[in-house]
Amino acid sequence: MKKIIRTSKAPAPLGPYNQAVLSNDTLYMSGQIGININTGEMVLDDIKSETTQVMQNLKAVLEAADMTFENVVKTSIFISNMDDFVLINEVYGSYFNENTAPARETVQVARLPKDVNVEISMIAVK
């Protein structure tokens, strides 16, 4: 069974996809970028602020599915500059317990939507 997860507390999709899809007990979350839901503006002041906004957007989607970061089993991080990895990782890591952190890959890409610096997607399980 497939259930679409939507919340007004995270940015609306920029195309023909949903914020997340719940299939049985597994939540597949689309990538989030640093859009501030209150202003509609991109948070691009610095990489730590941008990553924090991305994580807050992901948190809102998790909450809409009655989950937390503890439910996350896999993440994918896409960054435009590998030199930002340490700062992104610092913010990202603050949302997880290191002993139960999810599996992850981090990939540098040529370009991201709206020319952001970081996009993160997640898979979570109830």
Automatic annotation (TrEMBL):
<dbReference type="InterPro" id="IPR006175">
    <property type="entry name" value="YjgF/YER057c/UK114"/>
</dbReference>
<dbReference type="InterPro" id="IPR006056">
    <property type="entry name" value="RidA"/>
</dbReference>
<dbReference type="GO" id="GO:0019239">
    <property type="term" value="F:deaminase activity"/>
</dbReference>
<dbReference type="Pfam" id="PF01042">
    <property type="entry name" value="Ribonuc_L-PSP"/>
</dbReference>
<dbReference type="GO" id="GO:0005829">
    <property type="term" value="C:cytosol"/>
</dbReference>
<comment type="similarity">
    <text>Belongs to the RutC family.</text>
</comment>
<protein>
    <submittedName>
        <fullName>RidA family protein</fullName>
    </submittedName>
</protein>
<dbReference type="InterPro" id="IPR035959">
    <property type="entry name" value="RutC-like_sf"/>
</dbReference>
